[in-house]
Design brief:
two-stranded antiparallel sheet; mainly alpha; about 525 residues
Length: about 525
């Protein structure tokens, strides 16, 4: 690779997915990019409900706190398998509806099915023989796990092609690529706000009175009602976006590095070069084996970044309920009530986090210019993340030292933490929206830009990037429970590991991550597209 142009004498093994790169196109209008990015609001609405309500929900179904993390293991596993697979086949999809749109539509449909299973897990379990008097409800847990697996598979089927579609619409315009991912991050924040607001409202089930049943209490009915709204939002946004933004059908004959003219390139000897698609697993191995240095460093920084993020994303509301509010979902009614109050306060914190996330997403370009580039911006916010995770220790210790009780009718009852402790915890949630906005946009934009520079297919490249996200999630999911139990339970040990990983990610972003190529002016980009074979 030299000056962004692929040499024609490169060996086939080094151009593992060049035949999947689409012909050069001018960037699409911003309104189309925004329309596709808006699907993220529907996707993230469901994720917000998972992050704020599902960990307490699985404990109410009878799964102990130590094992709750293993339920979340299905997400990383499905992401490790599904996103590269979907990315590979979406790069090659020859459907008359386009390359990405069929996968986005199928993913939205499966999300609707999975959410129904999760919401009605307790009811289906009860109808199948679960006892209402026993803590553990094995049949409900089985239905929940199946629904959760389908949900994660569907979300990965949906998000990967969405990101790749945005990269396709942005073409080789690096600024528009960053803007597209920033809008995707913004709409993720919109979905978060809607999801966390729904999760913090305790009477939502009254809109759907049929949601409350013998097996499904008020908490469960609220979750079920939130999922009804989530399905409606996702399907509406998906239908609108896919109806408005069309894709041209892709043909392998017209995209084998031909510069967009549909003609096969000729070798020096004058013979047409044949491109034989490699088998899927061979292509993945080749993709990993032949990664350029910028992509390898990006994967490493992203991996450490998600080792930092995932413990907090998994246990943030649980931390509010247990460590900050002093409640416990498996103890007496008084502690259970305080745990629920803490979870709702955590949902409010996530709502504030999402507001900051949304505003920061819209200002990513300005922030990057202010600090001297996207790699510096990513490094700075990783240090902010490390400080925030370390601050959870201070907030927890202050909350524990100020634990208050009251006596009513001869019984001792736990009181909420002081207002200063609650304010500090909520401020922590809000500040973490800044690094979260960068995490949701910059790595994906860099992957698309590096992919364009090397001539790789967007779907497969973003699928490979997803490996650096799901592998640390798998590690955290498996190790978080035993690691926390080793230090007496609670969530702080995993948060400490996250703080260390965030600091390491920041150091690597500053010292090793290459800066992306400079933006090409539009007049030069038009001239370049006629000569650059990888387009």
């Amino acid at each position: 690779m030299e000056n962004g142009v692929r040499k024609e004498n490169n060996p086939p093994s080094s151009s593992f997915s060049l035949q999947q790169q689409p012909p050069a196109t001018n960037p699409s209008p911003l309104r189309k990019i925004i329309m596709v990015a808006s699907i993220a609001a529907g996707v993230q609405f469901g994720w917000a409900l998972q992050l704020s309500l599902l960990t307490p929900y699985v404990q109410l179904l009878g799964i102990p706190h130590t094992w709750a993390a293993f339920i979340w293991l299905c997400g990383p596993i499905s992401g490790m398998l599904v996103q590269p697979t979907v990315g590979y086949y979406s790069d090659r999809c020859t459907s008359r509806f386009g390359r990405r749109r069929p996968f986005i539509a199928a993913g939205a449909g499966f999300v609707a099915i999975s959410v129904f299973l999760i919401g009605y897990a307790a009811d289906i379990g009860h109808l199948s023989g679960d006892s209402l008097t026993k803590t553990a409800k094995p049949r409900a847990i089985a239905v929940f796990v199946v629904g959760f697996w389908i949900l994660d598979v569907a979300n990965n089927m949906l998000q990967g092609p969405c990101r790749a579609f945005l990269a396709d619409l942005s073409g080789t315009d690096h600024k528009k690529t960053r803007t597209a991912n920033a809008f995707y991050s913004f709409f993720m924040a919109v979905g978060n706000v809607l999801g966390f607001a729904s999760g913090s409202y305790t009477h939502l089930y009254r809109i759907f009175p049929f949601s409350r049943t013998k097996a499904c209490d008020v908490y469960c009915a609220n979750l079920k009602s939130c999922f009804f709204i989530s399905i409606a939002l996702l399907l509406t946004l998906t239908i609108l976006a896919l109806s408005y933004v069309r894709e041209k059908p892709w043909s392998p004959e017209g995209s084998s590095g031909d510069g967009g003219n549909g003609e096969e390139k000729e070798e020096e000897g004058g013979e047409a070069k044949e491109s034989t698609p490699a088998p899927f697993f061979g292509e993945i191995v080749a993709a990993l084996k032949n990664l350029q240095r910028p992509m390898r460093i990006l994967l490493l920084v992203t991996c450490l970044n998600w080792v930092a993020w995932f413990p907090f994303l998994l246990f943030d509301t649980d931390w509010m309920g247990r460590e900050v509010y002093g409640g416990d979902s498996s103890r007496n009614a008084d502690q259970l009530k305080m745990f629920d109050r803490g979870v709702r306060a955590g949902a409010l914190g996530l709502l504030l986090n999402s507001v900051v996330l949304g505003f920061t997403s819209l200002g990513v370009e300005v922030l990057a210019r202010g600090v001297g580039g996207v790699k510096r911006l990513w490094g700075i916010v990783n240090f902010i993340l490390a400080i925030c995770l370390a601050m959870t220790i201070l907030i927890t210790k202050v909350a524990q030292s100020n634990r208050r009780y009251t006596t009513v009718n001869g019984g001792t009852h736990l009181l909420p933490p002081p207002s200063g402790v609650k304010a500090g915890a909520l401020a922590l949630f809000a500040v973490m929206g800044i690094p979260q906005a960068i995490t949701y946009s910059i790595p994906f934009a860099l992957a698309s830009i590096f992919s364009n520079t090397s001539g790789a297919g967007q779907g497969l490249s973003l699928g490979v990037l997803n490996l650096s996200i799901v592998i640390p999630q798998m590690v955290v999911s498996v190790a978080a429970g035993p690691w926390d139990a080793l230090f007496g339970g609670g969530n702080l040990p995993a948060f400490v590991v996250g703080a260390i990983a965030a600091a390491a990610s920041g150091i690597l972003a500053f010292t090793m991550l290459p800066s992306p190529p400079p933006d090409i002016p539009s007049n030069k980009r038009a001239a370049t597209s006629s000569t650059a074979a990888f387009h």
